[in-house]
């Protein structure tokens, strides 16, 4: 694993695509378990290791993640998530060429049985408010690179909202096309938050280098 930052309160790392954020019924590799093992071995800790999951990335999505090493840090970071002081910025490769900048607002409802999210006409107990903004960075042929800022963190939000405007993510077979790409072209490349004890604003960046991101001149 690539560790970007570590102190007594936090550990910031890169999640590779196809690794779970936390364990599920599949029993496949997950970041929480891997990092607990890393901490246990590095610091020779007996017994269980505490590590707080502050946010998640979908299994197929890679990028920067932060985990809390204390319950106090976990609570303070979770509060930043709630108040939108904790920001995640993504790079996405989509089909077609969207307008240069836009803010998308929808109401999203998740069907737990088939793990699919749907756009609904109005808000309800099940259909939650979802907002993101994006900027078109570059287009090549029928593909475009977008920078996406999430205002809310709904399941599959970026995938569903971009597909809803006719620009599904490359490789997204659930909401897009049956194209021959292994993973969905979505990467959480930047993470910003305030340190839970020093209050310093921290920003961590990691750029994807694999296909299809390597088609573009990625810049911040």
Write a structural description.
The chain is α+β, with helices and mostly antiparallel strands and 220 residues long. Helices cover 15% and strands 36% of the residues. It has 3 helices and 11 strands; from the N terminus they run E-E-H-E-E-H-E-E-E-E-E-H-E-E. It has helices spanning 31-42, 71-83, 157-164; strands at 3-6, 10-15, 52-53, 62-68, 87-95, 101-111, 116-120, 127-140, 143-150, 186-194, 201-205. Strands 1, 2, 3, 4, 5, 6, 7, 8, 9, 10 and 11 form an 11-stranded mixed sheet that branches.
Q: What's the arrangement of secondary structure elements?
A:
Blueprint: E1 3-6, E2 10-15, H1 31-42, E3 52-53, E4 62-68, H2 71-83, E5 87-95, E6 101-111, E7 116-120, E8 127-140, E9 143-150, H3 157-164, E10 186-194, E11 201-205
Parallel strand pairs: 4-10
Antiparallel strand pairs: 1-2, 2-4, 3-4, 5-9, 5-10, 6-7, 6-8, 8-9, 10-11
- Classify the fold: give the CATH topology: Pseudouridine synthase
How many DSSP-defined strands?
11
Using only C-alpha atoms, the radius of gyration works out to 18 Å
Give the structural class: alpha+beta
CATH architecture: 2-Layer Sandwich
- Into which percent range does the helicity of residues fall? 10-25%
Count helical runs. Answer: 3
What distance separates the N and C termini?
Answer: 24 Å
Residue runs with pLDDT of under 50 for 5 or more positions: none
The amount of beta strand, in percent, is 35-45%
Overall morphology: globular
The CATH superfamily is identified as: Pseudouridine synthase
Could you tell me the mean pLDDT? 94
Describe the main β-sheet briefly.
11 strands, mixed
């Amino acid at each position: 694993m690539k560790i970007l930052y570590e102190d007594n309160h936090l550990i910031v790392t890169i999640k590779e695509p196809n690794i779970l954020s936390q364990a599920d019924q599949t029993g496949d590799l997950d970041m929480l378990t891997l990092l607990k093992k890393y901490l246990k071995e590095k610091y020779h800790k007996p017994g269980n290791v505490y590590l707080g999951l502050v946010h998640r990335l979908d299994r197929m999505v890679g990028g920067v993640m932060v985990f809390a090493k204390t319950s106090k840090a976990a609570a303070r970071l979770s509060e930043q998530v709630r108040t939108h002081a904790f920001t995640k910025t993504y790079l996405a490769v989509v089909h077609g060429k969207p307008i240069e900048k836009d803010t998308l607002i929808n109401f999203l409802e998740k069907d737990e049985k088939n793990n699919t999210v749907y756009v609904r006409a109005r808000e309800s107990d099940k259909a939650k408010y979802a907002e993101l903004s994006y900027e078109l960075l570059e287009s090549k042929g029928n593909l475009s690179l977008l920078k996406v800022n999430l205002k809310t963190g709904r399941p599959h939000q970026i995938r569903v909202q971009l597909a809803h405007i006719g620009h599904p993510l490359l490789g997204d077979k659930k909401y897009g096309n049956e194209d021959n790409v292994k993973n969905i072209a979505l990467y959480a490349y930047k993470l910003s938050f305030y340190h839970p004890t020093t209050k310093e604003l921290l920003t961590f960046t990691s750029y994807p280098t694999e296909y299809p991101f390597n088609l573009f001149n990625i810049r911040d």
